[in-house]
Amino acid sequence: MNVVNVINEINSQTEQGITEVYLVACGGSLVDMYPAKYFLESEAKKVVTGLYTANEFVHATPKRLNQDSLVIVCSHGGNTAESVNAAKVAKEHSAHTIGLTHNKDAALNEHSDYVFLYEWGEDSDVKNNPMAIILQLVVEVLNATEGYSDYEAFQSGIEKINGIIKKGEQQVADRTKEFAEKYKDEELFYVLSSGASYGHAYGFAICSLMEMQWLNAASIHSGEYFHGPFEVTDKETPFILLMNEGRTRALDERAKTFLLEYGEKVEIVDAKELGINTIADEVVEFFNPILFYSIMCVYRAALAEVRNHPLETRRYMGKVSY
Amino acid sequence: MNVVNVINEINSQTEQGITEVYLVACGGSLVDMYPAKYFLESEAKKVVTGLYTANEFVHATPKRLNQDSLVIVCSHGGNTAESVNAAKVAKEHSAHTIGLTHNKDAALNEHSDYVFLYEWGEDSDVKNNPMAIILQLVVEVLNATEGYSDYEAFQSGIEKINGIIKKGEQQVADRTKEFAEKYKDEELFYVLSSGASYGHAYGFAICSLMEMQWLNAASIHSGEYFHGPFEVTDKETPFILLMNEGRTRALDERAKTFLLEYGEKVEIVDAKELGINTIADEVVEFFNPILFYSIMCVYRAALAEVRNHPLETRRYMGKVSY
């Protein structure tokens, strides 16, 4: 599947071009969609976007959904009932659907006009992973419908990001072991970020810490931190701050200053220090979460190792009925 | 200020009607905007909406912002720097601005084309509090621009909700004391909800628990709970579930079933049991969060009392520079 061809084909089947893009999934797959939501909300003058956890899209389907809408649904295993239903609902409203999954026999595929069977695992180039594919899809939507002046810079970023990540992973290898040793007995973490990466702060909290490590966790938007959450800051409470490069860096820097003054257990993961700046200024902010996902996988692996709690361990997911 | 007149006046000053509504604030004021975001995303076929923490709106201003946009900014004290700046940015982009505040001398007012000096406190009718005013404003926008078929049912709900709340507050008085006694030594709470009330689950976590009680807390969308977060469920971890009436109730019911099976410290606050059903089915879901806000104020007051931690106590907010 080629993102350019798919979007051009869908766009040509609409009356006046794609008018809205719905991003619908659950948990980790929803996290992968957040950068695309942020991108369209920031850059589009016409195309509308909406990000939905799948079951809310099914039960409270937006009235705007129509035959010129594009609904992108992502499910790693491809059989998540709510996500499959969401794609079905989209088709019942005559919308165009794109499914992303790692399973060629997924039930999701039955309701997807186009299926991206994406690559997964450490050997894959991140541009072929769902987060980057979804971002590329919405970039194509914007470019096809109203034009995107930074299109070339974005494409150049897509070619660069995997190399930046490979270097970054080596750069953090030792410090993730120190992190794991230092925090191995903690029971709760707050994860802060902003801009395109806020979704990944949420993702690291709910997937990496809650689901995979059974640790308490919560994401906090760096901008919201000062309007309530910061009152829990003390020398005992661990905070992880994902610092973006780009327009919202000022928000993360403000959180950093406060955390270093009043907190003590503060882990800073800085996209700028990790070399993301070789991507052009106009588009760099959209690539932060792609970098953070891979880098934070190194952190969580180190934590899992020292805690002797393998990342695959579940007590409920796929084990009991719910 | 009259919501109908204000919106009609603004709408008449636009070229083709208000094309988008941006809801911009910080912390508790942002929470008050969530039902309006949910309403427009659900009901509108043309009008676009965006919800922003103020500093992100300032630093990553959406390119869509234009002279036909309406930007609603809310700040209780009216001088929150990020919110004042957001209104200023909106005016620099020639957008229309409405400010909501409890302070007649607020800096926010300088950048607001219209100012709602809202009522506050236990004696006020909730329809005159910011959450309901903002919801009424966007209902008027929808009605003025593309028509809203359930407009009358919505207005009837606005007239009823305060009475429902007054009864509900009495109904929960004893159980909030039991709640406070049972949970007084807990250090962490998860707060679940869905639909229009998700914002209030977030609000109860960040304002009532983190800010006002220095307790660890996180909101979880009832639909997302099963895709990661539920792995932390056990007999020791407290969960508060705000059960909506309306289309997303199924999501909350699913969470309830699981929590009662695998958890033990589970507090359920059910809008249906609290009598919200006297509001018409087509619109009842939008009123859940207005009910929950007032009801959860009784819960937090009981908790503050038994924990001997007054709701006004702060260590950073308004006390140190940040």
TrEMBL record, chains A, B:
<dbReference type="InterPro" id="IPR024713">
    <property type="entry name" value="Fructosamine_deglycase_FrlB"/>
</dbReference>
<feature type="domain" description="SIS">
    <location>
        <begin position="6"/>
        <end position="153"/>
    </location>
</feature>
<dbReference type="Pfam" id="PF01380">
    <property type="entry name" value="SIS"/>
</dbReference>
<dbReference type="InterPro" id="IPR035490">
    <property type="entry name" value="GlmS/FrlB_SIS"/>
</dbReference>
<dbReference type="InterPro" id="IPR001347">
    <property type="entry name" value="SIS_dom"/>
</dbReference>
<dbReference type="InterPro" id="IPR046348">
    <property type="entry name" value="SIS_dom_sf"/>
</dbReference>
<protein>
    <recommendedName>
        <fullName>Fructosamine deglycase</fullName>
        <ecNumber>3.5.-.-</ecNumber>
    </recommendedName>
</protein>
<dbReference type="InterPro" id="IPR035488">
    <property type="entry name" value="FrlB_SIS"/>
</dbReference>
<comment type="subunit">
    <text>Homooctamer.</text>
</comment>
<comment type="function">
    <text>Catalyzes the conversion of a range of fructosamine 6-phosphates to glucose 6-phosphate and a free amino acid.</text>
</comment>
<keyword id="KW-0119">Carbohydrate metabolism</keyword>
<keyword id="KW-0378">Hydrolase</keyword>
